[in-house]
Design goal:
Residues 93-117 are annotated as: Disordered. By secondary structure, the chain is α+β, with helices and mostly antiparallel strands. It has helices at 29-70, 77-110, 114-127, 140-156, 161-175, 186-193, 258-275, 282-298, 305-325, 333-338, 341-348, 357-366, 377-389, 391-398, 408-415, 436-444, 476-486, 569-572, and strands at 10-12, 25-27, 205-207, 214-216, 241-243, 249-251, 426-427, 463-465, 469-470, 508-517, 520-523, 534-540, 547-561, 580-591, 603-609, 617-619, 625-633, 639-645. The chain has five domains: 9-44, no CATH class; 132-199, no CATH class; 259-357, no CATH class; 381-415; 426-645, no CATH class.
């Protein structure tokens, strides 16, 4: 039997449907009934909340009156009475103001002044603190109960289970004589805790696939795009709507976002400098490298004013040459926008803070999700995504009382984006406060002394470890030599024949499975299928006045404890000494003198490792970047490695 299409012939005047010039929208009868029920629930919830606030103020007012009567003969009674009266009056006026807001909300649902209401809502959302929750109870324990309930429901409870859980908590509160009750609906609980504030700004939009004009889906949409392109007399006329299987007109969903993310993350900085050299004419290739160099400068998580100016210079060269090399028909407005990036970064900081390419890659996953032909899945997913993102901030903003600190570990289990590891083979040790600027200096300036026991970023903990073991006799001499050089103590002895228990270097180490440094995870060969992380580190040249970037492969990561003898004058001045050092044992490649790839900032290294020495013991603080490598054969059939350094991640 063929399906009967649902006709949109019912006038709906609810708040979302009335935000247009007509004051109503045509929807199906089922949708209209759902909107009416939703408006009624929201109205009841607002009235219920106002009534509870009014009762609370009335009780506090009665308590204040009793207090004033008891303290009538006190020398400070007049001052106390004035303070109490001001407090009560303020609270009553605040409740009355809330009642007025409720009345305005009710009237706006049935009235026709919808456009002004929309503007007011946007203004309030922009100016208000998203973590503000004025309806939260004052009792710290009640705050915790409400916070725990909303987080637990958002993570584990679906559909009608939320109402059942809320009712169960309210029954327990009654049994134990508490004068506090949670709102009976999930919407009310979200509003009381402020948890729904984070998703207030989410709106569905329809975008023309041709000219990219954006239409808000809250208002009636034309079937075809009505945007007139610059210099054209006719409209775009691209189709915006299509007929669904149920016969309703729905927006087309055929957007491709994943390719943008891949192009910026992989193709431009990593593959194109190597693969395009043999494809493009030399003039076009040199011009393309200007764009690659600009991307390398501007997409850094941490950027300097010098980097911004260099990136702008590269973009200027790229756009100027494009205008000369290519025909005007292939040039787009984006090329003009390139030249405004310098001002944008100066105003708002590194692009990682506001560019949406990393978020948009999730759209590639959404395209393959089976929605069972149901509409509005995008809004549901967006609400969940935004709320999950801000759960941690929500907890710290809601629970600020010192007495609530014991509750934080329990709530942390509900705010974590991933389930905590159940492995017992982890270690965490105390360290001095971590400073991001000092950590950046450690890997960007090789002239600074770095021992390996400096503070690690919080992302590194807990460290996933193996059982303690003895370092191989082949690698141990390099560790001993490292400590001699790093601590300027040439008299340090090996563990085999120590003359003093305080002047030798132990051979016991604890290998690490991996380490997370500001979002970048590094692994040794054992835990990366034989391919340990390829990294780069800066070293001083033989003359001490130049820096060289060496590329190597991590063989293993390890933790080692070492305390120098107390007669070291430098160490005597330290109040607390950190004996735990975190290293990577790295085998380095030999740098070649071939400069044929210098234009595209690609290094050429020998395919063989150089002989190991104390430089193979690398403090993890000195890893300057992760690199992409590629096997390469010269014209004489010699094997080489092409090395392309990638931006250093910095997510603390």
């Amino acid at each position: 039997m063929p399906s009967i299409p649902h006709r949109r012939n019912v006038v709906c005047r609810c708040a979302p449907c009335s935000r247009n010039s007509q004051g109503y929208s045509l929807v199906t009868s089922r949708t209209a009934e759902r909107h009416i029920r939703k408006d009624e629930l929201e109205r009841i919830e607002r009235l219920d909340m106002a009534e509870r606030l009014a009762n609370t103020v009335q009780e506090e007012q009665m308590m204040d009156v009793d207090t004033q009567y008891d303290q009538a003969n006190s020398p400070d009674s007049n001052a106390a009475t004035m303070a109490d009266n001001v407090s009560v009056d303020d609270e009553i006026s605040e409740v009355n103001g809330n009642d007025s807001d409720i009345e305005r909300d009710i009237n706006s649902d049935s009235g026709s002044g919808e456009e002004e209401g929309v503007e007011t809502d946007v203004e309030e959302f922009v100016n208000e603190d998203p973590f503000d929750a004025p309806n939260m109870p004052e009792n710290p324990v009640h705050q915790f109960i409400a916070t725990f309930a909303i987080l637990f429901i958002s993570r584990y409870v679906v559909n009608k289970g939320a109402a059942v859980l809320i009712e169960f908590i309210n029954q327990l509160l009654k049994i134990y004589g508490e004068d506090f009750q949670l709102p009976t609906s999930l919407i009310g609980l979200q509003r009381m805790t402020g948890f729904s504030n984070y998703a207030n700004g989410i709106k569905k939009s329809v975008v023309c696939e041709d000219c990219h004009k954006v239409y808000e889906q809250d208002v009636p949409l034309p079937t075809h795009c009505d945007f007139k392109k610059h210099g054209s007399q006719s409209a775009c006329n691209c189709e915006l709507m299509k007929v669904s299987s149920s016969g309703a007109m729905v927006a087309k969903r055929s957007y491709v976002y994943n390719s943008i993310q891949r192009s910026l993350q992989s193709w431009v900085p990593v593959y194109s400098p190597i693969l395009l050299k043999a494809v493009l004419p030399i003039e076009m290739f040199i011009n393309w490298i200007s764009f690659v160099d600009a991307c390398r400068q501007l997409v850094k998580p941490s950027i300097t004013f010098s980097d911004i100016d260099d990136g702008h210079k590269f973009l200027q060269e790229f756009c100027t040459e494009c205008q000369r090399i290519y025909t005007p028909t292939i040039l787009t407005c984006n090329m003009h926008l390139h030249l405004h990036l310098r001002e944008t970064i100066r105003d708002f900081g590194p692009v990682y803070g506001y560019w949406l390419f990393r978020f948009e890659r999730y759209n590639g996953l959404l395209k393959n999700v089976n929605t069972n032909r149901k509409d509005s899945f995008e809004v549901t997913y967006m609400n969940s995504f935004v709320q999950d993102t801000f759960k941690g901030d929500f907890v710290h903003a809601a629970l600020t009382c010192p007495s609530q600190v014991p509750f934080l570990p329990l709530l942390a289990k509900l705010t974590a984006t991933a389930q905590p590891s159940t492995s017992k083979n982890t270690i965490t040790f105390p360290q001095r406060p971590f400073r991001l600027s000092a950590f950046i200096q450690a890997y960007s300036n090789p002239s600074l002394p770095v021992l390996g026991n400096e503070p690690l970023p919080p992302s590194a903990f807990p460290l996933h470890i193996e059982p303690p073991s003895a370092m191989s006799d082949v690698d141990y001499p390099h560790l001993l030599d490292y400590y001699k050089v790093a601590y300027c103590m040439p008299n340090l002895e090996g563990y085999q024949h120590p003359s003093s228990p305080f002047s030798f270097v132990d051979n016991q180490i604890i290998k690490l499975k991996s380490i997370n440094l500001l979002g970048q995870v590094y692994k040794g060969c054992k835990y990366a299928s034989g391919r340990g992380s390829f990294v780069q580190s800066l070293f001083l040249g033989s003359q001490g006045n130049n820096w060289l970037a060496y590329t190597g492969q991590i063989q293993y990561l390890f933790l080692h404890s070492f305390t120098p003898p107390v007669d070291n004058t430098e160490l005597q001045t330290r109040v607390v000494y950190q004996d735990k050092h975190v290293f990577a044992f790295v085998k380095w490649f030999q740098i070649e003198h071939d400069r044929s790839r210098e234009l595209e900032s690609v290094d050429i290294c020998s395919a063989d490792f150089i002989a190991c020495d104390f430089e193979c013991i690398l403090p993890v603080h000195r890893i300057s970047s992760v690199v992409a490598t590629c096997d390469y054969k010269t014209s004489t059939n010699n094997k080489k490695i092409l090395v392309n350094a990638l931006p250093h991640k910095q997510y603390n």
